[in-house]
Write a structure and sequence with these properties.
With 361 residues, the protein is mostly helical. A three-stranded antiparallel β-sheet has the order 3-4-5. A two-stranded antiparallel ribbon has the order 1-2. It is 73% helix and 10% strand.
């Protein structure tokens, strides 16, 4: 009985050992499989890391490409806009040139007609003088009175003087008409308002009548002096359009004079149509210009513009920037006045004739 139990235990032990061996083999197999899976996982982690780096690189490249394409697109839009603006400017200038050409042609035709009329009047005067000379010769042959001959000679000389006087008045009339036609507006010396040339004569008549009622004879004589001064202005000038001007004082430069004293120069940038240039002027040059304009045009009221300079002279401007703004505004205000804008002192100050091509109206 005891031996049988031992035999059963031994069989059970053998079976258990076989199961243990099988389990150990399974454990080794699982450990090998686990090591293999770990190795594969490590390889996959490496591949995933590489793929992530590649994705990040692709994203960066994509972002750079998008930024580059966006910048190129914006630049193309700017170029297109710039070309469009240039074309608009060219078209505007072309239309202005066409209008100016037509205006000049009309003026030329008008001047031709006036010249023909003047020539006809001149020929009539010459014929009258010749007829009178012939009559004087006949009288001289038929009449031996020397006193009569001398009187006829004096009358002939008087006629020559009258002819020269009429020719001078005719030339002044032509010049005055040129000045009127060349201006878009004229400043009235009575009310200081800028009046269109189309209605200027009607306006000046009203102002004269009103002024005669209000002013004394002394004031009238002063007014006549102002009219005379304005009538002596040169009229064969290059008529400059204020809308074609762009004026700015964009920089100041401090220099030393010969006596080592520092002074400031104001750099003025000038643009007239497509012509661009720069000039340098000292503050005293602006003061000299204002004084010269006041003396040249005593009939014009430009004291308001002069206040921009006087305020600087009194020390109202605290900085150089303030003075630049005042001087820039002063020049821009002068450009708005036709007769000042086209005057010789103003052109010399800005060197307009040096850079802008001259032509006669």
């Amino acid at each position: 009985m005891h031996e049988r139990a031992l035999a059963l235990l031994e069989q059970e032990n053998q079976r258990t050992q076989k199961e243990n061996i099988g389990l150990l083999e399974k454990i080794h197999a699982l450990e090998n499989e686990n090591r293999t899976l770990r190795t594969e996982k490590a390889n996959l982690d490496v591949q995933i890391h590489l793929l992530q780096n590649q994705l990040e690189a692709l994203d960066q490249k994509k972002s750079k490409m998008l930024n580059l394409m966006q910048n190129e697109h914006e630049q193309q839009l700017l170029d297109i806009s710039s070309e469009s603006d240039k074309n608009k400017i060219i078209l505007k200038q072309h239309s202005q040139l066409v209008v100016e050409k037509n205006c000049l042609e009309n003026k030329v035709e008008t001047l031709k007609k006036q010249l023909e009329e003047s020539q006809m009047k001149y020929e009539k005067l010459i014929n009258t003088i010749q007829n009178q000379q012939i009559q004087l010769r006949k009288n001289k042959e038929g009449i031996q009175d020397e006193s009569f001959s001398q009187n006829s000679f004096r009358n002939n000389n008087n006629l020559d003087v009258k002819v020269e006087y009429l020719e001078g008045k005719n030339n002044k009339l032509k010049q005055f008409k040129k000045m009127i036609n060349a201006s878009t507006s004229i400043q009235c010396i009575y009310c200081s308002k800028f009046i269109s040339t189309k209605i200027f004569f009607n306006h000046i008549n009203l102002c004269i009548n009103k002024n005669n009622q209000e002013n004394s004879p002394q004031d009238e004589s002063k007014t006549n002096i102002n009219i005379y001064n304005l009538s002596q202005l040169p009229v064969n000038f290059l008529n400059l359009d204020q809308n074609d001007f762009t004026i700015s004082i964009y920089q100041t430069v401090v220099r030393e004079a010969n006596d080592n004293q520092p002074f400031t120069e104001y750099i003025i940038q000038m643009i007239y149509q497509l012509i661009k240039w720069t000039i340098a002027r000292k503050y005293k040059n602006f003061c000299e210009l204002h004084t010269l304009l006041m003396n040249t045009f005593p009939g014009l009221k430009i004291q308001e513009q002069g206040n921009l300079i006087i305020s600087d002279l009194n020390g109202t401007s605290k900085t150089i920037e303030d003075r630049c703004k005042n001087l820039q505004q002063y020049i821009r205000e002068l450009v708005k006045i036709d007769i000042v804008r086209n005057s010789k002192p103003f052109k010399n100050f800005l060197e307009i004739d040096k850079y802008v091509e001259k032509y006669k109206l």
